[in-house]
Amino acid sequence: MNHSHIAHAMWISYGTPVRPETIAAWERGEEVPQASELPALAGALWCDPSDLMNTPTTLLEHRWARGIAPSDLARAIGMPVSDYERMERQDKWTGSDRQTAALAVALGLSLPELLTVTGGDRKLDALLREAVATRWQAYLRPVTALVPLPRHRIEPVLRTLHSEYQSTMVTTLNWGNDVPASGGEGGRAFLDTVTERFWAGLQGD
Hints:
Elements: H1 3-14, H2 20-28, H3 38-44, H4 59-66, H5 70-77, H6 81-90, H7 97-107, H8 111-118, H9 120-133, H10 140-146, H11 151-174, H12 184-192, H13 194-204
């Protein structure tokens, strides 16, 4: 299919007018489809919208990837559509715990995806950095409050991460380096990946 064929299919089958030149610009990465254009483009190419996207990270991208209309998603999570659309535009989730749980179900979000969409990922990263570098026990409660999992699943992961980070510190000291507060290059590398290590630990427990 050339660009004209795709544009014709988008118009005939989905009522979405797009110029062939615009489709060519999409292919070159110079422009991106709008919310109303992506489903029609996917339909014309016989694929899912998610196949045309990078890994979704925002509310808008997850909704696009699943082809759900804002009104349908708002109804599923029990929220006025105007409130949902405002959160989507601002990329700032302020829904209740019940609405957050409903959002995860409606969009099929994993726990890491849910925290990223709702803005909790940055707070989790900060908590984990402090937990492994100081007393992990003091951070068990706030981490458990942020990640909706039982305490008995989170506790051993925090303990292990703390032990691994302290081992990194000891190894660096044994090499005789002038170690900064972050534990040298090894310590900084550990802290930069602490959130990924946390999720991996939960999957492996």
